[in-house]
């Protein structure tokens, strides 16, 4: 049986190979993988890194979309961006990398692979991006994002218009009505809120959307109606 330090070194080497980045500061990598449920006396958990990683991811994906979709409107780019930086997309990247094998949690969190813990896996991807950015700079972070997001960017909602614009035109043509959006819930800390928005159209069942910005939540709610009513496939 390997000593604990040797086993830890092997785990770090396996993870770095999957990530495609060799860290000069393994403490930062460890912090990026540590959930707040684990009480440690070291460098804490990944929450601050998650905050930074979310912004770095947004910048890198925005650059990627700007480069690939030269004729897309601001609205279309926003829809694509929101889908690519969503918790769902980040969790998918985490699962592709097998990050659940490396996340450190307290005893109250037993299983990280289920749907209920998808947000944790998504948060760790964002904190990992921040750790790469701080360790290797923007180029290193950009390389990681391109490897794991470029194919998704080219395959997400091709030729789809801005959801709110599409819904408004459909509602006007079908019901002579304008969609009304309401924030029905807000949770999370001030620096990283989560909004739930409900959209209502007379004669149509309402729908809700959730995201880290009010605008993105509105887009998600509009998309939900467009998909449900068969306007979008």
Would you kindly provide a written description of the structure presented here, covering whatever features stand out?
A hairpin with a 6-residue loop joins β1 (180-187) and β2. The chain is mainly α. It has a three-stranded antiparallel beta sheet. The chain has two domains: 4-154, Ribonuclease iii, N-terminal Endonuclease Domain, Chain A; 163-228, Double Stranded RNA Binding Domain (2-Layer Sandwich). It starts with a helix and ends in a 5-residue tail after the last helix. The chain is elongated, with a radius of gyration of 20 Å. The model has no long low-confidence stretch (mean pLDDT 86). It has helices at residues 4-19, 26-32, 47-68, 74-84, 87-97, 118-154, 163-175, 214-228, and strands spanning 180-187, 194-201, 204-211.
The CATH topology annotation of the largest domain reads as Ribonuclease iii, N-terminal Endonuclease Domain, Chain A
Count of helix runs? 8
C-alpha geometry = elongated
Structural class: mainly alpha
Instruction: Give, in spatial order, the strands making up the sheet with the most strands.
Output: 1-2-3
Q: How big is the Rg?
A: 20 Å
Topology as a string of helices (H) and strands (E):
HHHHHHHEEEH
- The top level CATH class name of the largest domain: Mainly Alpha
Low-confidence stretches: none
Q: Major sheet, described briefly? A: 3 strands, antiparallel
Give the number of domains: 2
**How many beta-strand runs?**
3
Distance between the termini: 54 Å
| Portion in beta strands | 5-15%
């Amino acid at each position: 049986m390997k000593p604990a330090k040797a086993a830890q070194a092997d785990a770090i080497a396996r993870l770095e190979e999957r990530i495609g980045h060799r860290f000069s500061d393994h403490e930062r990598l460890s912090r990026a993988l540590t959930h707040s449920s684990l009480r440690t006396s070291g460098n804490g958990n990944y929450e601050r890194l998650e905050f930074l990683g979310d912004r770095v991811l947004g910048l890198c994906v925005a650059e990627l979309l700007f480069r690939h979709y030269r004729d897309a409107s601001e609205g279309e780019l926003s829809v694509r961006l929101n889908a690519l930086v969503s918790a769902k997309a980040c969790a998918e990247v985490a699962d592709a990398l097998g990050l659940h094998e490396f996340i450190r949690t307290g005893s109250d969190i037993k299983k990280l692979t289920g749907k209920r813990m998808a947000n944790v896996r998504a948060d760790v991807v964002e904190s990992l991006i921040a750790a790469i950015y701080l360790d290797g700079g923007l180029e290193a972070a950009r390389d990681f994002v391109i490897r794991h997001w470029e194919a998704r960017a080219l395959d997400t909602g091709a030729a789809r218009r801005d959801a709110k614009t599409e819904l408004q035109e459909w509602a006007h043509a079908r019901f002579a009505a304008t969609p009304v959006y309401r924030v029905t819930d807000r949770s999370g800390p001030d620096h990283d809120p989560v909004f739930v928005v409900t959209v209502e159209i007379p004669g149509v069942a309402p729908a809700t959307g959730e995201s880290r910005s009010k605008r993105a939540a509105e887009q998600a709610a509009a998309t939900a109606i467009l998909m449900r009513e068969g306007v979008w496939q």
